[in-house]
Amino acid sequence: MQDADAFDDVTFLGMARTAKRDPYRLSLFGAHLDSGERPLVLLPVQGGTLLVTDRRILEFRAHLEVHGAWNVKEFQGYMVQRSIDRASVREIEHVVRGAVDAAGNRRVEDRLQLTASNGMEEFLVSRGPEPTLSEADFAVLRDAVVGRQAK
């Protein structure tokens, strides 16, 4: 378990680049890291957060508890939705697909596709009128994912 200090050297990409760095929230991510594991890159994705460490790629989702008859949801922290060993990833691609809907609005899906030793993994970064992950941010992410692996 690591605290927010473990995130001092993390690169924040996409929408996280300008977000406030909340030490409490970062410590909730740190609670899922192994001893000595170093976080490298944090990227918000559709419905969650992607964290690349020196060992793994972790997809986090908010853990909400339902309380009472009115189904009031209370934030309880984060849970790991998916964990991928970085050493198993051979390639990562940034795929942007666009279409125009019936109302004439442009809709774009911004995705990451990872080719790993056990098959293809895909993450939806965003849906909207434009992609949110720039090519410069993707280059940083790609280097973190397929760059030098931890020993």
Structure in words:
This protein has 151 residues and is mostly beta strands. It has one domain. 13% of the residues lie in helices and 49% in strands. The strands form two sheets. A five-stranded mixed sheet has the order 1-2-3-4-5, sandwiched between helices. Strands 6-7-8 form a three-stranded antiparallel sheet, covered by helices on one side. β4 (56-67) and β5 form a beta hairpin. The model has no long low-confidence stretch (mean pLDDT 86).
Outline of this structure?
With 151 residues, the chain is mainly beta.
Key terms:
globular; 5-stranded mixed sheet; mainly beta; 2 helices; 3-stranded antiparallel sheet; 151 residues
User: Portion of residues in helices?
Assistant: 10-25%
Order of helices and strands: EHEEEEEEEH
What is the number of helical segments per DSSP (H or I, 4+ residues)? 2
Biggest sheet, open or closed, and with what strands and sense?
5 strands, mixed
Q: State the distance separating the first and last CA atoms.
A: 20 Å
Percent strand equals over 45%
Query: How many distinct folded domains?
Result: 1
Average of per-residue pLDDT values:
86
- Unreliable sequence segments: none
The number of distinct β-strands equals 8
Spatial strand order of the main sheet: 1-2-3-4-5
- Assign an overall shape: globular
How big is the Rg? 16 Å
User: Helices and strands: which structural class?
Assistant: mainly beta
